[in-house]
Amino acid sequence: MKKQKQNRREFLGAAGVVAASGALATNAKASQPTQVGESDDSSSYFQPKGYWEDRIKAPDDGKKYGWFIDTRRCFGCHGCEVACKAENDVPLGNYIRQTFFQDVGEYPKVARMFLPMACQHCEEAPCIKACPCGALQKGSGGSVVIDYEKCCGHATCVQVCPYGAIYIDPVANQAVKCHNCYHRIDEGMEPACAATCPSEAIYFGDLNDPNSKASLAMKEAEQNEVPLIQLRGEKETRPRMWFAGPAPAEIEPRIPKEGQSYHNDAYNIYNWKQ
Asked: Cα separation of 68 and 86, whole Å?
């Protein structure tokens, strides 16, 4: 998976030169994703199985990377977002991960719940099945990653992601999403968001390793009879992200769906109480 290690700063720098020349301008206009609602059936976007069945298989490296998010601990500092933006050069107005919130209760007994969200790195990733240029694939530990030498900015992946976790870069006109910070994992570090979280609400690790941080946190939750929740299971994508706490049920309706991406409106003051 050498292509994964392409430096994103170098890539976007080169892409900016091309964009300035106008080569990408026409492409970007033709490839804008349409909004959710045009098709309720994501499978209508899928390529023939023979085109993606090899790319959706995780490498036989014995690892299974996954996430556990304890929303009971999250207090909405957005540190994970800031760390992610800094680590991956995410432009203003775009997000690889975003923390959604919902106010609950009635005055004077009110509370604000938070739900950190990012790519779920699904076992049955619809983005891989729909990508017409073969750029999306499984990397080490089963992480869903993008080969930037192949991505054509078609945006079909945006159309089929049931979690709104992919956006099209405004300069490179290519798909961008969480890749589990594989460049950090290869150096023995945690993803930037997990390493930054001050409340220890974000856990990442090899789920095949019972001693990984994610495995231990999930085991503790189960021992304390705390339900482990996955979002939008009816989509049958088999996500690799589990949540604890009441926030997922309250906030799920606010999470973007197919054809949408994380956006600034999530923080609009007029959405504080809905």
From this structure: 22
3-state secondary structure of 148: coil
**Is the pLDDT reported for residue 11 higher than 70?**
no
Structure tokens at 97: 């991960």
User: Cα–Cα distance between 163 and 68 in angstroms, integer?
Assistant: 16
Distance CA 104, CA 124 (A): 33
Contact partners, residue 34, CB within 8 Å, separation at least 6: 159, 259
Of 122, 141, 113, 153, which Cα lies nearest the Cα of 52?
122
DSSP SS3 for 231: coil
Kind of pairing between the strands at 144-146 and 167-168: unpaired
Mapped onto helix, strand or coil, the DSSP state of residue 178 is coil
CA atoms 139, 163, 128, 18: torsion sign? negative
pLDDT band at 24 (very low <50, low <70, confident <90, very high): very low
Structure tokens at 1: 């998976």
pTM of the model: 0.84
All domains of the chain in start order, with CATH: 2-271 (3.30.70.20)
Omega before residue 253 within 30° of 0, cis:
no
Residue type, 255: I
In 3D space, the residue among 226, 234, 179, 185 whose CA is nearest the CA of residue 68 turns out to be 226
